[in-house]
């Protein structure tokens, strides 16, 4: 009888825990980005569980690996939704994997997704029933900012290559259009495929056209890194302009800081002198020793914290309540809540008060498409790291 009673008690306790999905591109072209981002997500869960838990129990993180591919994203999201029964998903990270997971798995199942990093303009117009969100600005914004950065550098003629996927085509098209509108000349434009060993034929076309620099919109762990390396090895280009996919310290390790000294990169960033960023970085480094300054740590933490706040605000793991709850905790009006302030948020929600989360990456006021405004940083190589030298809102 005592054993039976103990088992029943354990089952009841387990039933109170709430699983939350974390869809990440753990393997694949952005694998080098992932470890600090997993730490960021885990930190949010740790804070929640140490400060009162989620609903009436613990928050349980369940990771799914997209493998950096569309089919992998669909399979991983399907498992989170149909096997793990998560009420909401943080992720994915790449635009292509985010869109694939949403269209084939999350939207049909009525599950909210919050991506910390997916930037493709295609996400804006997806018929998503208010289920797909992101907390970084669309590439429609980043492409225009990058075009201005290039012109401000005095680069009037550039060659452009972008990867043939949702990410590359989205920002590549926006950049080219914006650069031409500013009076710049695109001397050659080449759309390239992923996972090739050699891009020398594409580079021959690009270099023959000339240009003051090569704009590369791709991932450093795949085509982007190879294109930069093969450009340098062939003496074809010495100055490169990249976006967030190329702002990967693996690129510096592979190419060398000296070879990238004249290059620069754009990426979503946080507002200048944001106290919530400083607060998160202090908490993160206290937990893990280092790594808070890595790309997208801020956004991954914030997206994870927001999904957990949405569940708490909804008062249950009912998927149908997540979208409304997410919008409520992310936007004004409400009492401000920042990184690590779970106990405060939980108490306010319990009292029936509105909260407004402002994170390490800034404020997140979703529009009707689940998009946000944001900030784009300009980065240069500084030793073995990237250094931010400017911010555009």
From TrEMBL:
Which Gene3D superfamilies does the entry link to?
A: 3.40.50.2300
Keywords in alphabetical order, please: Amino-acid transport, Signal, Transport
- CDD domains associated with the record: PBP1_ABC_ligand_binding-like
In terms of domain of life, where is this protein from? Answer: Bacteria
Q: Name one GO biological process term.
A: amino acid transport
Is Coiled coil one of the keywords?
no
Question: Where does the record place the Leucine-binding protein domain?
Answer: 19-330
What Pfam families does this protein map onto?
Peripla_BP_6
Q: Which family does it belong to?
A: Belongs to the leucine-binding protein family.
Q: What is this protein called?
A: Leucine-binding protein domain-containing protein
Q: Which organism is it from?
A: Hoeflea olei
